[in-house]
Amino acid sequence: EDRTHAAYDPTYVNRCWRILVGVARVLEQYRTPFVGKSSPVHFWWGSFDLATTRYSGRPAPPRDWPTRWMALGAQQEQSLAGFWPGNERLSEPAFVAYTYPEPPGCRAAAVQPDAAFFHPELAEFVLPYEQVRNATDPAATILDFYRSTYEIGAILGGWDRQALERPDPTKIPGAAGRHFRRGGTTHMTTQAEEVS
What are the CB-based long-range contacts (under 8 Å, 24+) for 74-79? Predict the structure, then answer.
């Protein structure tokens, strides 16, 4: 039992709790238009992250996983969106997202907002928490990131978006479309396409 690292600072515990509650609220909003199989927003106690996962409904290719529960969780194609406090590979808290299996072209796709990027070591899209904290509208910035990364993975992965999605009642009216490059061609999904 570790008695050395047993300090309890109520101010920092409260800050952490408020961040997790706020992120959970945004993740619930993000889940709204998806009618396919998805996980509830859940807390991973081992890595202290919060996430939700959308599934395409198609099986994922088999691969070796370190544990049985990880293998069971990756039996279907999936798109994860979450918040992670970081570790030695990512030394700051961040919003993260990935699609498994990773579709070709995913790493080179332009993600929104501009502060987001693909982290090759993690094989995930990352949006630093500090960028969100300083944004004019943090919730909209997070939603832009989650929607953008999902669209990249779902489009490049050939997901049946018409069957899996419904109009998003939380969408900000007049929001611009999303752009990404695939095979030298720029693709754009507009709000009208997202609603149809």
Answer: 74/100, 76/37, 77/101, 77/157, 77/159, 78/53, 78/54, 79/53, 79/54, 79/55, 79/149, 79/150, 79/153, 79/154
Q: How far apart are CA 83 and CA 62, in angstroms?
A: 26
Please give the backbone phi and psi of residue 43, each rounded to the nearest 5 degrees, phi first: -105, 125
Q: Residue 188: beta bridge partners?
A: 179
Token representation of residue 139: 């919730």
Q: What is the pLDDT of residues 102-139, one digit of tens each?
A: 999 999 999 999 999 999 999 999 999 999 999 999 99
What pLDDT, in 10s, does the model give residues 23-82? 999 999 999 999 999 999 999 887 889 999 999 999 998 888 888 887 888 889 999 999
The DSSP string of 66-79 is: SSHHHHHHTSEEEE
Interatomic CA distance for residues 105 and 114, integer angstroms: 18
Alpha helices in 59-137 (DSSP H): 68-73, 129-133
Kindly list the distances between the CA atom of residue 149 and the CA atoms of 7, 11, 93, in Å, as whole numbers in the listed order: 37, 33, 18
Tokens describing residue 112? 């929104």
What per-residue confidence (pLDDT) applies to 26?
A: 96
Across 156-172, average pLDDT:
87
CA-closest candidate to residue 183, choices 106, 78, 123: 106
The DSSP call for residue 125 is E
Contacts of 153 (CB under 8 A, 6+ apart): 79, 98, 99, 102, 103, 106, 159
